[in-house]
Design a protein that fits this description.
heterodimer; A: alpha/beta; Transcription Regulator spoIIAA; five-stranded mixed β-sheet; globular; B: 160 residues; alpha+beta; five-stranded antiparallel β-sheet; three-stranded mixed β-sheet
Chain lengths: 100, 160
């Protein structure tokens, strides 16, 4: 799993590539924590290059969503497809997140 | 039948997932509309089976073996009607019927693994012992409405 964070004009784009699962979620947690501590108001999680996600990975994204919402921020999911889209639909998260 | 034995550690998860992914490509699953009888290729088959297996492997590595490792035997058997995946481990057991159905409307951050397994497969059976044996079955011809619409799992947020 690789990820990049880019901040521009108040938006933060967090691009996640590869596999976000029980193995890789510990790697991204510090970045998630930083976004929350900095109270980034508009967060876009770009998963267009995410190949696979499991419940651990979903938990990380849901946690970020809930914490951002708590301080008035918003989170959008961009590029959801294939197996990650299957899991988001299964967990009805496609009804919760703003997905493009 | 495909049968392998690997360490039950998260480091081996990707290897196991690739094996299941490859096995999925050897079958041709279809979805059938029960009203019209029409069928189409089951485009969700690979994603759902791999997702269920991934959660099952996590359970073995994280809960049965508590990250300490141990043997995991994986068997994949296909017939004209179904794919059956068996996962055997020699770690701690649990009662699968005691695992609560998550309240999806509250956006849980954990406790989703068994739910995903049940939703993605047609049958889940767990026999505690030495070894513990998890058997997951996915039919190769599946009702159009199964799984994704909460057909085979409890539905905490029914559609209005």
């Amino acid at each position: 799993m690789n990820f990049t964070r880019n901040d521009a004009n108040g938006d933060t784009v967090l691009r996640i590539e590869g596999v976000l699962d029980a193995v890789t979620t510990p790697d991204i947690r510090p970045t998630i924590e930083a976004l929350v501590v900095e109270k980034r108001m508009r967060i876009i999680v770009d998963v267009s290059a995410l190949r696979l996600i499991d419940s651990s990975g979903v938990g990380v994204i849901v946690s970020l969503f809930k914490r951002a919402k708590a301080y008035g921020g918003e989170l959008k999911i961009q590029g959801l497809r294939d197996q990650p889209l299957t899991i988001f639909r299964l967990l009805r998260l496609d009804r919760v997140f703003s997905i493009s | 039948m495909i049968r392998v034995k690997i360490p039950g550690l998260l480091d081996y998860r990707d290897l196991a997932m690739r094996m299941v992914t490859s096995a999925c490509k050897l079958v041709h699953a279809r979805r059938v509309n029960p009203a019209s009888g029409e069928s189409r290729p089951d485009h969700e088959f690979d994603a759902e089976v791999v997702s269920a297996f991934g959660e099952a492997f996590n359970n073995v590595a994280l809960h049965s073996y508590r990250r300490q490792g141990g043997d995991v035997e994986i068997e994949i058997e296909t017939s004209p009607t179904a794919m059956v995946i068996r996962i055997l481990d020699y770690g701690d057991s649990f009662d699968i019927d005691d695992v609560p159905v998550p309240a999806l409307e509250s956006l849980p951050e954990s406790g989703l693994g068994i739910y995903i397994m049940r939703a993605c497969m047609d049958e889940i059976a767990y026999k505690a012992g030495q070894p513990n044996v998890l058997t997951m079955t996915r039919r190769l011809v599946r009702d159009e409405n199964a799984g994704m619409q909460g057909h085979n799992v409890a539905d905490p947020t029914p559609d209005e």
